[in-house]
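Comment thread on ticket #2218

A.B. wrote:
> Attaching the input chain for the structure job we discussed in standup.
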Amino acid sequence: MKNKKPKKEKSGSISRRGFLKGAGIAAAGTVIIGSGVAVLESRKSVQNKDFEPKTINISMKVNGSIRQLNIEPRTTLADALRNELHLTGTKVGCNRGACSACTVWINGIPTLSCMTLAIEVGDREVTTIEGLAKNDRLHPLQEAFMDHDATQCGFCTPGMIMTAAHLLEHNPSPTEKEIKVALSGNFCRCGTHPKVIAATLDAAKKM
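C.D. wrote:
> Ran it. Output below, let me know if you need it in another format.
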């Protein structure tokens, strides 16, 4: 017997095999899309519940006053001072502890506020450039900086003054070399270091 030739599908008709293929692809697509939506919803749920920023309440003694803050644990002391307490005299230059523009005192010790978390301060006292003046009278070093025009853009100035003032607190009559050593970590891109040294020497005489 001669083999029967397979019947050709009529134009426009769908074969059983073609129908099954199409149905399989459609089902697989539905599963993939459904899985993708489920993953996205799962991610949103995790982000909303587990990783949303959480704030904490802390108290901090700044320039002689107890201040209350509600901040994220990751907040640096520099950001807390500037953004929460609006003490913008503290400047953030490099934000990685290299320029010392953000220098403040913690218990009288010069500290880089951009490298210190606010929650690390605890019950210690923070002194900023705003707290250096007493009874509305500028610190002698602040006056000397103005007299000697030791500020140019002024961005590094608060850190310079806080560092130099700490030096004068512990060494009332420093030499030029001692001033240079003390200020070696404070950078001024304007190049006003000679005037800063002159101002510090002058303030030492007045103090």
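A.B. wrote:
> Thanks. Noting for the ticket: Strands lie at 56-62, 65-71, 103-106, 109-112, 125-127.
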